[in-house]
Specification:
The complex is a heterodimer of chains A (541) and B (374).
Chain A: H1 2-11, H2 13-25, H3 30-45, H4 48-60, H5 62-76, H6 81-87, H7 89-93, H8 100-123, H9 126-147, H10 149-162, H11 169-182, H12 188-199, H13 218-228, H14 235-251, H15 261-279, H16 284-299, H17 306-337, E1 345-349, H18 353-364, E2 370-375, H19 382-391, E3 396-400, E4 413-416, E5 420-422, E6 427-430, H20 433-442, E7 447-450, E8 456-457, H21 482-492, E9 497-499, E10 504-507, E11 514-517, E12 520-522, H22 530-533
Parallel strand pairs in A: 1-2, 1-4, 2-3, 4-7, 5-8, 7-11
Antiparallel strand pairs in A: 5-6, 6-10, 11-12
Chain B: H1 3-6, H2 8-22, H3 29-46, H4 52-69, H5 74-96, H6 99-102, H7 110-116, H8 120-129, H9 146-167, H10 169-174, H11 177-180, E1 186-190, H12 194-203, E2 210-214, H13 221-231, E3 235-239, H14 244-248, E4 253-257, E5 260-262, E6 267-270, H15 273-282, E7 287-290, E8 296-297, H16 325-328, E9 329-332, E10 336-339, E11 346-349, E12 352-354, H17 359-366
Parallel strand pairs in B: 1-2, 1-4, 2-3, 4-7, 5-8, 7-11
Antiparallel strand pairs in B: 5-6, 6-10, 11-12
The chains are: A alpha/beta (541), B alpha/beta (374).
Chain lengths: 541, 374
């Protein structure tokens, strides 16, 4: 425990003291603390990019940055983490509720706690006291929920519904609501309220924050922040970013004495992976890549000099990115591009990096077609695609999902991307894709999914509810009308109202005409045979 | 026509409503229907006519004007048709006196019903043949206003009937709400339909259910709806449109509002309705439409095409804050979707629940055949 703190402190010696002081003082202004924290980190890593991202993260999504920062904190002050988990997000997340009052008191207790802990750390008696203190402090917010349940209990619970990515918080409020239901409020309405949510309560499954063991590399912490703030989204982007970060981790890794790289590196890497997963649930692509990486690490030669082994691993990671993602995309561009003819009207939903590449490549090839971009909340990612396509002067039409039926008569082909593909041929993709595919299919418009084979997931899914993730900002205030943002404000006050915003949905194979992969165009019914044809290099190894 | 001299002041009311319809200052099917009734009441109360045909022509000309102002507000035309229907009925009872009751409805048969519309129709030709008896005298050369004077009180009553129907429409629709909504159900709705709102709220005291409301871009009226439902004590979940398909497998029933119900049993409704209805079909979830009978429109539509829809201002989809994007992009923002009758399981109206296949019959009962074209 103390050794991990020391290793980090060694790495960032000039700023370590500053860090501890900022995190203890600057709690009321989380964005400020997150910035200084990030700057400390980035100076340690000597990376300008990190600073840029920290600056852009803090104003946009302070809540996420905060929660992730918290997990960054956790590594430096491991003893306080359980308490922080319960105190930090709660008072700061919604300044409107009556939790304002407990806020100052909690800060005080936190400071006290830190004093105590620092004294006790010397005495090596930390574990017991932390446990008891966290026990008492964690019961506090729950009781607050209970007491104020009818007036503002739900209101207090609301922000966690709105920002469900906040790990730990979500778990905090759901049981609180359950207690409300059974306990002092036998109102029928209150009785009923959780029911609709109970069905969807597993969405996102927020994990308790940063119960990370061991030492988290700063590159991973930065990546975790970017994941949590949705600065890096998309299955491909996240996978590439993760592998790149792992390369840094591997290069900075030093095999401890009496250990071999092939056995110990994974021990070093798994807390990094856990940290990333706590920032945002792992994508299928990341899982496949990690599985492959584990295979490579365990297979690396024991007799190889350490640096050579690390270089070899980095090379395999580079190869993986090149072969399975970048080259695969190029092949898909060619293959899918061959299905686009002059005069076609291509429909696409939200933004898929592969589809974007296909369209741009095809346009550069001299094909003349137009594109209809359908978009929807919560992410409104289609605007980014719209920008890049109009920059290439491709004629575009933009509309929101409900308006889709009015453009279908003019559409010739639908291209969509995927988050993952399942053995039964179902495509797990951005929420709304299923609807677009269904409408296109009902009008006999070919539905083409562009997807690299490394996105193939083993196992079968029946619907989008069984496993899903929640969007970061379910109802961003509408940029156009002030009225709707006012509604948003008013909505928060209502105890019967909750919000739910899944990030993905599942398109059934019946709605899919073909899947374009780097190994060819296949019908959805043949998806299950692809991993076998590839020699099971990644799937279920 | 006879309208021209007598309608100087009428025109002001009519023009004003026509202008407001054109500018979309009056929107929503019930709102426009109510406004139309008000205008017609004023028109009739001030109209000068000496026989029924003149009166019908006056009302029709007003109706034509209003419909031309905003052809997509179907309830304007419907209200005019309904008023005409009531006026004819009142006229016939007034002019008949005893004869109406003396011609009993002979026998019900499908063939007669289909060929002649409502049972009442069988009596009318005879009635008009031996014209104006009793106290009612049309085209009286001595006193041209005598006919109008005698008839106006009943006409006002007839118009009041139409008005009353519009007034009570929500109550009558939601009367049976608790028979449609069961405990522990999860119900999906989109947008903000006052009818659906009243329907869901009236079931709330009896049934504990969850309402899922899609926020329905680009108006995001679903947020308002969610707000209103939750403040009435209904546990409400607000979801974005994109998640409808994912959640549909957990939804027991879809309840939608309508903008206009067409003669083939299809309907025009807020954009997004077709998506929801199709997703519901894919999951075999029942789709129930709550709508007043004033939305029944004697028109057909078979295709979802540009001409049938109505397009709104694109700024709510892609605003000017997007900068130069606005210049390069076509933005589509229709008001309505056309939902085919196969997508709908039932219409819950203020006069009973009906399958889409029997809408044509309701329309035959509600309007006179000769008014289909105003």
């Amino acid at each position: 425990m103390s050794t991990t703190t020391e290793t980090v402190t060694q790495m960032v010696t000039p700023t370590a003291s500053l860090k501890l002081s900022t995190s203890s003082i600057a709690l009321p202004q989380p964005s400020c603390s997150s910035q200084s924290q990030m700057q400390a980190l980035s100076s340690a890593r000597a990376s300008a990019q990190s600073q840029a991202s920290s600056n852009s993260i803090s104003p946009a999504a302070p809540a996420h940055a905060k929660s992730a920062i918290y997990s960054a904190n956790a590594n430096f002050q491991r003893n306080t983490k359980l308490n922080d988990a319960n105190t930090i997000p709660n008072p700061n997340s919604d300044p409107n509720t009556n939790l304002n009052a407990p806020k100052s008191q909690k800060q005080m207790t936190k400071a006290e706690r830190r004093e105590q802990q620092e004294a006790q750390r010397a005495a090596k008696a930390t574990a017991k006291t932390t446990a008891s203190q966290s026990g008492t402090s964690s019961s506090k917010p729950t009781s607050t929920h209970k007491q104020s349940a009818s007036v503002s209990g739900k209101g207090a619970a609301y922000p966690s519904a709105a920002t469900p990515k906040k790990p730990g918080k979500g778990q905090d409020w759901k049981p609180a609501k359950g207690e409300t239901k059974e306990g002092a409020y036998p109102h029928l309405q209150m009785d009923e309220t959780p029911r609709g949510l109970r069905i969807f309560s597993h969405f996102g499954a927020p994990k308790p924050p940063a119960v990370t063991k061991g030492d988290i590399h700063p590159a991973i912490i930065r990546l975790g922040l970017q994941f949590a703030a949705f600065k890096i989204t998309g299955a491909n982007a996240r996978c590439i970013a993760m592998l790149t970060a792992f390369k840094t981790v591997i290069q900075d890794y030093v095999t401890p004495p009496n250990n071999t790289l092939s056995r110990h590196l994974m021990v070093q890497l798994s807390p990094q992976i856990t940290h990333l997963v706590s920032a945002r649930p792992m994508s299928v692509t990341m899982g496949n890549a990690i599985r492959q990486m584990k295979l490579e690490i365990s297979g690396s030669d024991i007799d190889l000099p350490e640096q050579d082994a690390k270089n070899a691993l980095c090379d395999t990671i580079d190869n993986y990115i090149r072969d399975r993602i970048l080259l695969a995309d190029q092949v898909i561009q060619e293959t899918a591009g061959s299905k686009i003819k002059d005069g076609d009207v291509i429909l696409t939903y939200a933004r898929s990096s592969v589809v974007e590449k296909v369209l741009l490549h095809s346009w550069a090839d001299g094909k003349r077609f137009s594109v209809i971009i359908v978009d929807s909340r919560p992410m409104l990612e289609g605007k980014a695609l719209l920008k890049s396509l109009t920059a290439a002067s491709i004629p575009c039409t933009y509309l929101l999902l409900p308006s889709l039926p009015s453009v279908l008569p003019h559409t010739t082909t639908l291209f969509v991307g995927a988050h993952s593909l399942h053995a039964n041929g179902a495509v797990f993709s951005r929420a709304g894709t299923a609807m677009v595919a269904m409408m296109a299919k009902s009008r006999s418009i070919p539905v083409v999914v562009c997807c690299e084979t490394y996105k193939f997931a083993e196992g079968i899914r029946w619907d989008g509810v069984s496993k899903n993730e929640l969007a970061p900002t379910p109802f961003p205030p509408s940029s156009t009308s002030n009225s709707s943002s006012q509604h948003n404000l008013a909505i928060k006050m209502n105890p019967n109202l909750s919000m739910l915003s899944p990030l993905y949905d599942l398109t059934p194979p019946s709605c899919i005409t073909a899947v374009v992969t780097e190994v060819g165009i296949i019908p959805p019914s043949s998806i299950s045979s692809i991993p076998g044809a590839l020699g099971r290099v990644t799937i279920g190894a | 026509m006879a309208t021209e001299p007598s309608s100087a002041e009428n025109h002001r009311v009519v023009e004003s409503l026509a202008a407001r319809l054109r500018r979309r200052q009056v929107v929503g099917s019930r709102e426009t229907a109510l406004e139309t009734v008000f205008v017609l009441r004023q028109v009739v109360s001030k109209a000068r006519f000496s026989n029924i045909d003149q009166l019908v022509e006056i009302i029709r000309s007003v109706g034509r004007k209003l419909v031309e102002a905003q052809p997509k507000e179907y309830t304007v035309g419907n209200t005019v048709r309904k008023v005409l229907h009531h006026i004819r009925e009142e006229y016939h009872t007034a002019s008949q006196g005893t004869t109406a009751s003396s011609t009993p409805k002979p026998s019900f048969s499908i063939a007669k019903f289909v060929s002649q519309g409502q049972p009442r129709k069988q009596a009318t030709p005879q009635k008009t043949s031996h014209e104006t008896r009793g106290m009612l005298k049309e085209n009286n050369p001595d006193d041209p206003d005598a006919f109008a004077r005698t008839l106006k009180p009943v006409l006002m009553e007839a118009i009041q009937d139409v008005f009353d129907e519009l007034e009570t429409v929500y109550d009558n629709i939601s009367k049976n709400a608790k028979d449609h909504i069961h405990s522990d159900e999860i119900i999906l709705t989109i947008g903000k339909s006052s009818t659906v709102e009243a329907f869901l709220k009236s079931a709330a005291p009896y049934r504990k259910y969850t309402a899922i409301v899609a926020d329905t871009a680009p108006s995001y009226s679903g947020q308002e709806m969610a707000q209103s439902l939750s403040s009435a004590g209904i546990s409400t979940v607000l979801v974005p449109d994109s998640s409808i398909y994912a959640l549909m497998s957990r939804i027991n029933k879809v309840i939608l509002g309508a903008h206009a119900i067409l003669a083939n049993g299809g309907m025009f409704a807020i954009t997004g309705s077709l998506l929801v209805a199709t997703a519901a079909r894919a999951h075999s979830t029942p789709v129930v439409v709550c709508a007043g009978q004033f939305k029944l429109t004697p028109q057909w539509n078979l295709y979802h095409e540009y001409g049938a829809l109505d397009f709104a201002d694109p700024s709510s989809v892609l605003g000017f804050e997007e900068g130069d994007l606005v210049d390069k992009v076509d933005v589509v923002n229709p008001f309505y979707d056309y939902v085919r009758p196969e997508m709908i399981d039932a219409y819950v109206t203020n006069d009973g629940d009906h399958p889409p296949s029997s809408v044509y019959r309701l329309i035959k009962e509600a309007y006179d055949d000769e008014d289909y074209e105003l």
